[in-house]
């Protein structure tokens, strides 16, 4: 082995001293870590490396060069130790002080990030320099082979320690600081978010977050983005703001949104809920979700990621319950078909259509795909369901043509219902929306349509209803009763439709035609019923008492008896008949009186004395002119109410 000079020994001692200084500094870093960090194993390996350097032997020239190599390795190691000192100083402020001054706290986190970045880079360089020293010693045989191998193993071990990710170089300080920052992020949002606890649906603005709070939130999110923790911020934001919106909605009383189809029998039982649904949906969209949308945009645009803001809003809307509103509408579309359901489907469509621009604005982005899909499904079911019920109306009119009309000459419920219902459909409230729905439905099917699609369909329904009148009238065995039925029907079409939407649709000439038909059947009724009675008071055989007084008296008694029996029979029968209109009843009574009374008075004045002196005259002369009129005036007196009739049913058995 070559002789080692004093100078070489001094260099080795200096290198060893420098390494020992490095180890001492590393120990100071260890004290601030809660658990044994990767610095401890590195320190132990450096100590071992220092010991291994002691038996180095080489000539003077080699050792001089070796000293230079050691100096170059020690410089980055010393820099690393200084940065560790900085990390140690940051520990107290990051973990012990409150996070009130967000800007200052974020500055310290950035300093920690920079320190860790430096450590990560320089640690690798320091290890590379140590590797160079060992390689140099090996190449120049400055140490025994066993010592060189030992030093090589130590450097490899130190290098592996730097690559070990189980323990971070800062002992978890950055994670702990970011956790505290997350907690501050949550508290900032929660403390400055206030739900709208109100049952009043007046126009009120949702209180926004203060500008300075928004700025602090954005600063925190920027720091979290740098550290790959933005998803956790978004989750916190959605959770807190979603709960706020949910609390606001709960104050409105939305228990009906929890119902299922099994909780009610038909749409009529939830009419009030549907009305409130429209009001609550409008309030929620315009005053809660819109405010939340604007807040998301404001925060995330400042943050520099509006797309992330849209996704955040979509999650808030879903968590707050927008889908519950839409699914309530779907539940209504699944109810059994009836006329009220058509109106309620149109009401729901109107509510959604009035909010169409709001829905497009709030839920038009990709993150709101589920909300958009459910909304489209609801609109399709509303339109298809409304059209199905509407087009079934004509079918119902035609199906009931073969059913027997009321036995009292009144009108079937179908006439009242269908005319009233069509007037509702043509009202200002429903005409435009139903026409729009019918057109949309036709366009979906690729079918042509006219602007008058609604009125054309209504005209077909009413004309089919009028056609039913002729068929129904022929089902009466009593022709006189059929005249009463037609008289009532044409009176109803003329009188009750005048001044209505249907009356305006069909026009004055159509109404006058029904008025003329009413008069026509009134005349036929009078002629076919009361008009037959005067013929029973025949003068034949009574003139000049041609057959003798006794024979004439017997003939007169027979005719008066026949007249009385027929009069009473007709009265009893017609007392159960219905004439709907008061004026029409009066007119019919006057026709009866005018037809019978003058003839009866004249007849009794001429031939009455033949029986008045007879002891049994009261059996034949039962009426005076006054009592006869009183009797006829009482006709139809207690039968002016609408008559019950057959129900309107679907061909499948369901109510219209």
From TrEMBL:
Superkingdom of origin: Eukaryota
Domain Exocyst complex subunit Exo70 C-terminal: 277-632
Biological process per Gene Ontology, one example term: protein transport
A Pfam family recorded for this sequence: Exo70_C
Naturally occurring in which organism (per UniProt): Zostera marina (Eelgrass)
Classification via InterPro entries: Cullin_repeat-like_dom_sf, Exo70, Exo70_C
Function (record text): Component of the exocyst complex.
Family, similarity comment: Belongs to the EXO70 family.
GO cellular component annotations of the record: exocyst
This protein's record includes keyword Transport: yes
GO molecular function, one term: phosphatidylinositol-4,5-bisphosphate binding
UniProt-recorded name of the protein: Exocyst subunit Exo70 family protein
SUPFAM superfamilies referenced in this protein's UniProt entry, alphabetically: Cullin repeat-like
Keywords: Exocytosis, Protein transport, Transport
